[in-house]
Structures are given as structure tokens and as C-alpha cells.
Specification:
Elements: H1 4-18, E1 34-39, E2 54-63, E3 66-72, E4 88-90, E5 96-105, E6 113-117, E7 120-128, E8 133-137, E9 150-155, E10 159-161
Length: about 160
């Protein structure tokens, strides 16, 4: 079971990641589908220095309007930040497997991403840099919003899901 602090961080990152999709009106029949991962060599205020070619092993998948946390289970990559073997993978790598845990439903609005949690709504701005997208919380932050930017990229390869426990 994911503790509430970790779940909160996952929700914030999930919304930031998913908000970078081409925007559609809430309630649209075009559900945002896909898998997104943070850039491995980005930091909380600094964009990646590799154009986001290396991805972190934690990410998100949207299926039928539901956000899921995904965790890669079979990466053997040795060039990860802090020399942690398997905690990252190349963006074009195929044959990856992941565990998946449901987080919950998500909605999007044109030109902004709004996340409401525990009575506070957080607004995020989006900037497309081609190989990655930067997600930045508005100046007026909810008490639960980390003061950090997210740099994310869409993963286009097939992802094999392992049985959920």
C-alpha cells in the first residue's frame, strides 16, 4: 500500500505529466491515453542536459480516464543518476515491463491543468521544449504543492504490465 505522502506526490506528478498532452475539453470522448516518465537528468529547477533521452523508472499511464502509477521492473541500465542500476532507461528502449497501481480519475481543461486535493486547487503552466515538457506550479501554491518544476516525456514504446499484487 502506498502511504499518503507518496500518493500525494504521485498525484501531483501525474497531473503535471498528463496536463502536457494536447489539451481537450473536460468530458471529451477523446481520453488522454499513454505513458509518461520524468526525465532522469532533470532536477527540481534545472531542465535535463540530455534532451530527456534517459527516463526515470517511475511514471504514469492513463487508461480510460484513470491515472495509474507505473514502475519499470526490468531495466538494467547502468548510466542512471547517482549510479543506481536499473533506476532509469533510454527513451527508445523496448521490451520493458512495469508494475501498475491505480491512482484515480483525472480531468483536464483548455490551456491549464488544475489539481484539487484537500480543498485546494493548484494551477500549473506548461512549456513545450520539443524533446520534453516543463510543468511549473503557479505562484499561488497550495500547501501540498512542492516548489519544483517537472520535466517529462512521452514514452512511445509498448509497455508490458506485470500482474498487480
Amino acid at each position: 500500500m502506498i502511504c499518503s505522502k507518496v500518493l500525494l506526490k504521485l498525484l501531483v506528478v501525474a497531473v503535471a505529466i498528463l496536463a502536457s498532452q494536447p489539451l481537450r475539453a473536460a468530458g471529451s470522448s477523446n481520453v488522454l491515453e499513454g505513458v509518461w516518465f520524468r526525465c532522469e537528468f532533470a532536477h527540481s529547477q534545472i531542465p535535463p542536459n540530455d534532451d530527456c533521452r534517459m527516463l526515470d523508472d517511475d511514471g504514469f499511464q492513463v487508461v480510460d480516464g484513470i491515472v495509474h502509477h507505473v514502475k519499470i521492473t526490468n531495466s538494467n541500465e547502468t548510466k542512471c543518476r547517482h549510479d543506481r542500476v536499473g533506476n532509469c532507461f533510454l527513451k527508445n528502449q523496448t521490451g520493458l515491463s512495469a508494475e501498475r497501481t491505480e491512482i484515480g480519475p483525472i480531468e483536464f481543461f483548455k490551456n491549464t491543468a488544475l489539481v484539487t486535493w484537500l480543498g485546494c486547487t493548484q494551477k500549473y503552466s506548461l512549456s513545450n521544449f520539443g524533446s520534453f515538457i516543463e510543468i511549473v506550479p503557479d505562484q499561488e501554491q497550495c500547501w501540498w504543492t512542492p516548489d519544483k518544476r517537472y520535466f517529462i516525456s512521452f514514452y512511445q514504446q509498448p509497455l508490458q504490465l506485470v500482474d498487480e499484487e
